[in-house]
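Action item from last week, closing it out:
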Amino acid sequence: MPSRASSSLSRRPTSIRPASKHPESLRPSSTRLKTPSISTPPRGQNRRAVESLQAQADSERFQVEAAYLALTANVAVAAITEAALRGQIDATNELINLNRKMLDILRKQLDTGYANRSDVAAQEAQLAQVEATLPPLRKALAFQRDLLAALSGSFPSEGPRETFRLADLQLPLDLPLSLPLQLVEQRPDVRAAEELLHSASAQIGVATANMLPNFTISANGGYINSALAGLINPANAFWLLAGNATQTLFDGGTLLHQRRAAAAAYDQAAWGYKATVIGAAQNVADVLRALQNDADALRAARAFERAAKISFDLARQQVETGNANVIFLLTAQGTYLQALIQVVQARAARLADTAALFQALGGGWWNRIEPPKEKVLNVGTGESFTLVDPNSL
């Protein structure tokens, strides 16, 4: 139940005389008025309301940054995956060529009597087995190219113009093993949660201000006279100043519970912010651990590849000279193929985890001069164009 109190001050013109009873004196009077009115809300109500809306707008902007960061990270991982698939295809083709050369040698030995038919059949089976692994890799590569085209906003028929290979992708010279927690402060998801907390804090101020009195000040001023000719005269000036104060006396506890609800929403936002920060710190820690183990895995895979290559070369030389069984060669071939694939996968995993580290640290969006350009799609033509903000011109 609102209660209202009011007061007023006034000044009347001194030159206005009481109207006579003569009909001619009852003609309309001339008046020139200015009527300003000022409504004064409780202290800080509008400021806190604008502050809350600005924080919500900033939160939405950081969510856009998070989506853009996720998109760029997905593009990077897709490119690394394409490079890894090309590396596996190249390794498989290399082993296929080696198997074909070995098959030609065994066939010549069969013609000269230095090998039997079972050895040639075993080598043919080994070659067919390695060749059978090639179509799935090519299919995965085609799917990956389609994914890259989709992530870049193109149709699969257009395809990405770039071709990615592991040899063209270089890691930074130094990758950290530990980082200060302050680096996660610039992550878009952390900043978005921070702005939501800011908005919830401002809503407490708005709810508090709603419980305070509301003041309204109005003023009237001008000139009044029965004749237009003498209207603008200091003696005909008048003014009226009035003030009103409105305060809710009884509302059944509505305003109090609205403030308590705002405080509870602030607590919820605070716990959400803490959960986001902890999740961000865990994400960075996981990526750093992955990078550390990726380096060890790549080192072990390259050692495995060197040992398998030596074993395969020795087995091939012994089979060519007739000093070893073909089973020994087949085992060495399978081991060497496995070693080549492991090296490619270890390199790709380290590159992907490096991209994940940049994503976990926020992607460096704060170093960008301007936000990403917003594009609009014309559904009828299928063409997209950059949206121009008229306020920025």
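Closing note: The two ends are 50 Å apart (CA to CA).
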